[in-house]
Amino acid sequence: EANHPFAEKCRLFAEANIPFYVCPGTSSWNSIGGRTDNALGNIRNAIENGIKQGALGVLNTDWGDGGHLQQLPVSYLGWAYGAGLGWAFERNEGMDVPAVLDAFAFHDKSQIMGRLVYDLGNVYQSPDFFVENSSILFWAYSLPLDMMSRTEVNAQIKNKFRKKKADFSFKLHSIINTIDRVMAPLDEARMDRADAGLINQELRLTAAMLKHGARRLLAILGEETPDQAGLDSEFSALIETYETLWLKRNRPGGLTDSLDRLAGKQPVYPGESWEQFLPGIAD
């Protein structure tokens, strides 16, 4: 998280005279679309305190926990900010991140892509429903579609949601509209990259997966049922596109595992079950 105790941990290493470096992260894992504000805060926190306590350097990390559900361009923001602060913290701490992404990551003359990815990465905050080190839209995939119609499952999770946020349904509808608004300018981007078309597809899949996650949560709340909403056919299309895009950039290793977790065929993390769906909801 952005408030990770880097100050305390770095001080302990320094006082013990142990050489160390700091390892922040892009916050892309367990999110699908990234977590922009958390990524920037985590990276800034780590590097600032590493410098204060004499860290040897910084290793900026990017993970595929719980199935690697985020697409490659989602991580560009964290990598760019980490590179800037790792090289010259004071000069780059307040960098214009969207502009940097347009110039050095997406090579987008229209200056659309940087802001689009930045805003898409902040969608995780829109439901106003905090789940540690992840996004609630990611966790929506941990419950298989065929379990959503089970009365006992639906009632238990629905009650947890309603205890936490009375207006949760309204926020889920709003988040779908927000994603559409953020994605609207994508076709106007002018990326000078050989993989510009692939990036376009990857971000469209990212947006579709986030929206599908919101619709799953609406189904749990009883506003839509899997049959009425067409969630089954929608999810099948997402799975097909996900597999196709995976193989365009990555080796096959890991694909089956990620597909199984995406489809709810195995727990997001070993030892978990649907009863632990959406950690922290009951707190």
Fold and architecture overview:
The protein is mainly alpha-helical and about 280 residues long. About 55% of the residues lie in helices and about 0% in strands. The longest helix has 25 residues, at about 195-220. It is globular, with a radius of gyration of 20 Å. The mean pLDDT is about 90.
The gist of it:
This protein is 53% helix and 0% strand. It is built from 13 helices and no strands. It has helices spanning 6-15, 36-52, 76-87, 89-92, 97-105, 113-120, 136-139, 151-164, 168-183, 196-220, 226-229, 231-249, 255-262.
Q: What's the structural blueprint in terms of helices and strands?
A:
Elements: H1 6-15, H2 36-52, H3 76-87, H4 89-92, H5 97-105, H6 113-120, H7 136-139, H8 151-164, H9 168-183, H10 196-220, H11 226-229, H12 231-249, H13 255-262
Helix pairs in contact: 1-2, 2-3, 3-5, 5-6, 9-10, 10-12
List the defining traits of the structure above:
283 residues; mainly alpha; 13 helices; globular
Which structural class best describes the helix and strand composition? mainly alpha
Give the CA-based shape. globular
Strand content range: under 5%
Q: What Rg, in angstroms, do the CA atoms define? A: 20 Å
Distance between the termini: 18 Å
Continuous helix count:
13
Mean pLDDT: 89
Q: What's the helical proportion of residues?
A: 40-55%
What can be said about the biggest beta sheet?
none
One letter per element, helices H and strands E, the order comes to HHHHHHHHHHHHH
Give the beta-strand count: 0
Could you name the ranges where pLDDT drops below 50 across 5 or more consecutive residues? none
